[in-house]
Amino acid sequence: MLAEILSRYKTGSSLVLTVTICLSCLIWKSNLLSRTANSASQALDFFSGTFTSFGKGMSRFVDSYGTYEAVRSERDALREKVKSNLDTQVELIRLREENVKLRQFLQLPPVSNHPVLQAEVISQDPDNWFRTIIINKGSADGVATYMPVVALQTVTVPAENNKPAETKLVVGIVGKVIQVNPHSARILPLTDQFSRIGVNVKKTGHWALLNGQSPHQDAPLIDYLSLGVFISPGDEIVTSGGDGIFPRGLPVGTVGKRIERLGSFQKAEISPVIDFKKLDFVIVIQKKVDTESLNFLPLKPDTVEEPKLQPPVPAAQKAKPDKADGDAAAEKSAVKPDAAPKGDAAPKPAQNPAAPDAEEAQ
C-alpha cells in the first residue's frame, strides 16, 4: 500500500525527500561553521589578548623610558645647578673676605706721615737661602727700593681675667722692598735670615737688633739687648726708627718664651704680629729713603761689619826707635834730594790700615 502511494505520488515524494536532505545539510553545515567560527574566535581572542598585553607592556616600557630620560635630564640639570651654586657660594665667600680686608684697609690708622699704597701678594718664594714676597705693584705705581711694608690683620685676643675673647685690627711690620720691577716688587720679610731691623722694647725703650732666622723659621730673634734690661714673655717690640727705613713705633711682635743670656747681652724669640701664612694684602709706605746714607746696608746679606782697625802702638815703642830704624834715618838724611837715583820713584804715601776693611764693609 505504501508502495502504491509512493508510486502514485513519486514526484512529490522525491521533492519532499530532496527538501529534507537539503535542510539537513544546511543545518549540519551551519553547526559546523558555527563551531569553526567559535574555535577561530577563541584562537583570535587568545592571540589578541597576547598582542594586547605585549602592546601594553611595550607602551608602559616606552613611557617608563621616557620618564627615566626626563628624570635623568632633570637630575643632570639639578647637579649643574648645585655645582653652579657651590661655585657662586665659594666666590661669594672670597669676595666677602676681600671686602672685609678692603674695609679694614679703609679703617687703617695712620702709620706714618707718608702716603701708603695697597698691594696684593701674588706669590711667596721660600727657598733654601731666601724667603721673599712678591706683590703686584712696582715702580710704575710709585714703589721704590727700601720702602717699608706693613700689613693689616684681624687677630683674636683670648679670654682672660673674666674678659671675653675679642677680635681687633692690628698693623704689623712685614719687611722692606729689595727689588722693584715696573709692575711688581719683591719684599724681604723680617723673618728672613738676611733681615736686620732696629727695634725697641716698648715698655723700657731699650734698643735691640731684630734678626731673621732661616727661611723655614717664622720666629725672628732680638739680639744685642743689654743684660740689665728685664724682659718677659709678652712684652711688645716696636721699630726704633733709627735705621732710616722704618718709621718709629710700628708694632713688630711680642717676646716669646725663649730667652737666652750670652755674655753682656741677651736674646729672645719674637712672635710677629703678622701671620705670614695668611698674608694676602700688604701696605707699602711710600717713604723716600736716602739710599746714599744706606750704602753700608747691602741688600743681600743685610748685615753691617765693623771695620777692623790696627791696634795702637804703645808710647814706649814710639819714644825708643830701634837701631835699624836709626841707621836708616841717618842714611836718608845724608842723601841729597838732587842726588837721588833716576830709577827711584817718589815715596808712596802711607795707607790707612782700616781702608781695606772699610771697603769690604761697604
Question: What descriptors fit this protein?
Answer:
single chain; 362 residues; alpha+beta; Thrombin, subunit H; six-stranded antiparallel barrel; 5 helices; 35% helix; 25% strand; MreC
Describe this structure in words.
With 362 residues, the chain is an alpha+beta fold. Among the domains are: 2-78; 116-290, Thrombin, subunit H. It contains 5 helices and 12 strands. The strands form 2 sheets. It has a 6-stranded antiparallel beta barrel. The chain has a 6-stranded antiparallel barrel with strand order 6-7-8-11-10-9. It is rod-shaped and about 175 Å long. It starts with a helix and ends with a helix.
List the helices and strands and how they pair.
Layout: H1 2-8, H2 10-106, E1 116-126, E2 131-135, E3 148-157, E4 166-180, E5 185-189, E6 196-201, E7 207-211, E8 221-226, E9 236-239, E10 251-262, E11 265-272, E12 281-285, H3 315-319, H4 323-334, H5 355-361
Antiparallel strand pairs: 1-2, 1-12, 2-5, 3-4, 3-12, 4-5, 6-7, 6-9, 7-8, 8-11, 9-10, 10-11
Question: Can you name the CATH architecture of the domain at 116-290?
Answer: Beta Barrel
The ordered string of helix (H) and strand (E) elements is HHEEEEEEEEEEEEHHH
Strand order of the largest sheet: 1-2-5-4-3-12
Q: What's the total helix number?
A: 5
- CATH fourth-tier homologous superfamily of the domain at 116-290: Rod shape-determining protein MreC, domain 2
Please tell me how large the radius of gyration is. Answer: 54 Å
Pfam families: MreC
InterPro entries: Cell/Rod_1, Cell/Rod_MreC_2, MreC, MreC_beta-barrel_core
Region (Disordered): 302-362
Domain Rod shape-determining protein MreC beta-barrel core: 121-286
